Amino acid sequence: MWHVVGVSEPEERVYEALTRRGQATATDLLGHVALSRAQLSRTLGRLVDRGLATRLSGRPTRYAATPPDQVATVLIAERERELLRLRTHADQLAKEIRRSGGTGRHPAELVEVIEGGANLRATLVRLQREAKVQIRGMDRPPYLDNPVSGNSEETQQLADRGLTYRVIYDRSALAIPGRMAEIWRGIQGGERARVASNVPMKMMLCDDRLALIPVMAAGQLADAAYLVHPSSLLSAVSELFEAIWERAVAINRTGVRGGAAASAADEHPDQLSERDVELIGLLAGGATDERIARTLGWSVRTVHRHVHRIMTAVGAETRFQAGMEAVRRGWV
């Protein structure tokens, strides 16, 4: 949970273990945080530097945790200041986009309009081929092409070149039949995927050089996109992605999770059928019982039985919570 205020997973584990003990030495904590002694020492040092813990005098060295309510107040205030700076930066874009921003480009050239399906696909391919470090994307309905056709092959090619490929999926995308399986194929190819509610737009970022943002008209995709060159607008799009990535939930069957994770590995069910995986995706996407029944070819009564089983397995109180918790645990 602490990841939303910038606390890493190891820091969270050590801080909460220390909080429960009041005071402890590194040796006291060693068997409770799944870290090596060197990793634990570095993590304790970071907690002290950030004010989450205090190093007490005496030998052996003992540590005391700062009370959680005090830590939360300080870290939330810091994150609010960061978000306020982002909002201020975004509010200035309308003015700054009319300047060259030091790029040497005429303001009118900072944003191109790419029209036509063939041109859009060619631009996507070019961005992927020209990327040197990473590709980042946000994905949400609607789609021009079949979203289940996917690009797992392209993802594998990027991974083979040593590039990072990160995508944030809107939870509504998970409810599309077959979409969860396609996302999983991308993950197998090296994609790092997370899911969030209300992803604001579709886009692809090529390193920090270019962004491709599809044009929306009346809630539908137009056969056109904006190609954004280095500028304040591009910086804001990049910061928006990272802000959403921080709060999004990782999709990962291996149990390696982004953001806040449990202090111990979550229990994985012995068997997850393909239908279970698809059901979890539909739950995380907010699908109704009737839609799930139509998609999976089940009766509504069968849907109720399987949903109840998954809710019980993850200790969830709502259907959506069950789907998101299963995703968080790395079950899909």
Question: Could you walk me through the main structural features you see in this protein, from its secondary elements to its overall organization?
Answer:
- The chain is an alpha+beta fold and 332 residues long.
- It has three domains: 2-70, Arc Repressor Mutant, subunit A, CATH 1.10.10; 101-251, Endonuclease, Chain A (2-Layer Sandwich), CATH 3.30.870.10; 274-328, Orthogonal Bundle (Arc Repressor Mutant, subunit A).
- The chain has helices at residues 9-21, 26-30, 37-50, 68-91, 93-96, 117-130, 152-160, 179-188, 232-247, 274-284, 289-296, 300-314, 319-328, and strands at 23-25, 53-56, 62-65, 111-115, 134-139, 164-170, 192-196, 203-206, 210-217, 220-228, 249-251.
- It has an eight-stranded mixed beta sheet, with helices on both faces. A three-stranded antiparallel beta sheet has the order 1-3-2.
- Helix 7 (152-160) runs parallel beside helix 8 (179-188) and helix 12 packs across helix 13 (319-328).
Sheet/helix structural class: alpha+beta
The proportion of residues forming helix, as a percent range, comes to 40-55%
Radius of gyration: 23 Å
Low-pLDDT regions: 254-271
Order of helical and strand elements: HEHHEEHHEHEHEHEEEEHEHHHH
List the helices and strands and how they pair.
Blueprint (H helix, E strand, L loop, with lengths): L8 H13 L1 E3 H5 L6 H14 L2 E4 L5 E4 L2 H24 L1 H4 L14 E5 L1 H14 L3 E6 L12 H9 L3 E7 L8 H10 L3 E5 L6 E4 L3 E8 L2 E9 L3 H16 L1 E3 L22 H11 L4 H8 L3 H15 L4 H10 L4
Parallel strand pairs: 5-6, 6-7
Antiparallel strand pairs: 1-3, 2-3, 4-10, 5-8, 7-11, 8-9, 9-10
GO molecular function: DNA binding
Protein name: Transcriptional regulator
InterPro entries: Sig_transdc_resp-reg_C-effctor, TrmB-like, Tscrpt_reg_LuxR_C, Tscrpt_reg_TrmB_N, WH-like_DNA-bd_sf, WH_DNA-bd_sf
